[in-house]
Amino acid sequence: LGKLSDKDLVDVDVTKKTITALSKRIQDRDGEVLKGFNGQNCANSLWALGKLSEKDLVDVDVTKKTITALSKRIQDRDGEVLKDFNGQECANSLWALGKLIEIIHV
C-alpha cells in the first residue's frame, strides 16, 4: 500500500483507512486473527508498520495498540511464537521496533 500511494496509484486517505482497518483487525479482542500468527506473521506485520510509519501512513494510537497486541502474541504461551522466529525475523522485528520508536515514539 505504501508503494502504491507513493506512485499515486491509490489515494493516501484510502491507504490510511485500509491500514487502520487491518491494524484494528489484528488487535481485535477475540484475538481470532492474532491466534493464527506465527513468528513470520508477527515479524512481517511489525516490519510493515515500520515501513508505513516512514511514509506517515499510520495512525499513531492504532499502531501502538497493534504493536502491543503483536508483542503479547510473541511473548505468550511459554514463548511458543518466539521459538518460531528465525534470525531474519528477529532482525526485521528489531529494525521495525527501532524505526517505530524513532518515528512515532512507541
Net shape:
globular
Question: How many helices?
Answer: 7
On the 0-100 scale, what is the average pLDDT? Answer: 87
Helix content: over 70%
Please give the alpha-carbon distance between the first and last residues. 22 Å
Radius of gyration: 14 Å
Largest sheet: none
Secondary-structure map:
Elements: H1 2-6, H2 12-26, H3 32-35, H4 39-54, H5 60-75, H6 80-84, H7 87-104
Helix pairs in contact: 2-5, 4-5, 4-7
Explain this structure to me?
With about 110 residues, the chain is mainly α. Helices cover about 75% and strands about 0% of the residues. Helix 4 packs antiparallel against helix 5 and helix 4 packs parallel to helix 7. It is globular and about 45 Å long. About 30% of the residues are buried.
Main traits of this protein?
mainly alpha; 75% helix; single chain
